[in-house]
Write a structure and sequence with these properties.
The complex is a heterodimer of chains A (about 110) and B (about 110).
Chain A: E1 4-7, E2 10-13, E3 19-25, E4 31-38, E5 42-49, E6 56-57, E7 64-68, E8 74-78, E9 87-94, E10 101-103, E11 107-111
Parallel strand pairs in A: 2-11
Antiparallel strand pairs in A: 1-3, 3-8, 4-5, 4-9, 5-6, 7-8, 9-10, 9-11
Chain B: E1 4-5, E2 11-14, E3 19-25, E4 33-38, E5 45-50, E6 54-58, E7 61-66, E8 71-76, E9 85-94, E10 100-104, E11 108-113
Parallel strand pairs in B: 2-11
Antiparallel strand pairs in B: 1-3, 3-8, 4-5, 4-9, 6-7, 7-8, 9-10, 9-11
The chains are: A mainly beta (about 110), B mainly beta (about 110).
Amino acid sequence: NAGVTQTPKFQVLKTGQSMTLQCAQDMNHNSMYWYRQDPGMGLRLIYYSASEGTTDKGEVPNGYNVSRLNKREFSLRLESAAPSQTSVYFCASSDGREREQYFGPGTRLTVT
Amino acid sequence: QKEVEQNSGPLSVPEGAIASLNCTYSDRVSQSFFWYRQYSGKSPELIMSIYSNGDKEDGRFTAQLNKASQYVSLLIRDSQPSDSATYLCAVNGALTGGGNKLTFGTGTQLKVEL
């Protein structure tokens, strides 16, 4: 039981390049989330998927897109990376409302 | 006013002492509260959840909730050097599309000194 897994662990992009961050969970959770964590800003919600087939914007969605591929997988895409997107990205999952979220190991992204 | 506020610290306590971490929140309708521990360079790890007023104990950890005062705290008894980390308070709020939104504080850095 791996919990929440993310790939890649590290990535360096040049401004304007695109990439997709992958996330998968094996806990049969309905809801999945993407956060970014920046120094002094805490964790901020980018996008979420309350259940398979649905996605919605969080607090900071600009510059990102997501796909809920199936119940297990939720990907985050940066179409044209910008230096402001340099951050640590975490995927999380939960069993629904009022429930705790479990986090993946994170992806450290640097955009130069 | 931030939605979830924590003192950034660092909070330094000697080994074996009780560490007390505090958090206040602004949304009165919040029903679920969580404490996460985050080691440097690692992901947040859930250590406690609390849903009702009062205390909840799990091993060396005790979470305390006072909804009237909009206050959550975490006590760590017999603090160990391995407890040195950043502790994140998270407060639940419902999302319009379903699921739950966790609003995080910026965390309190705890240092347990030998």
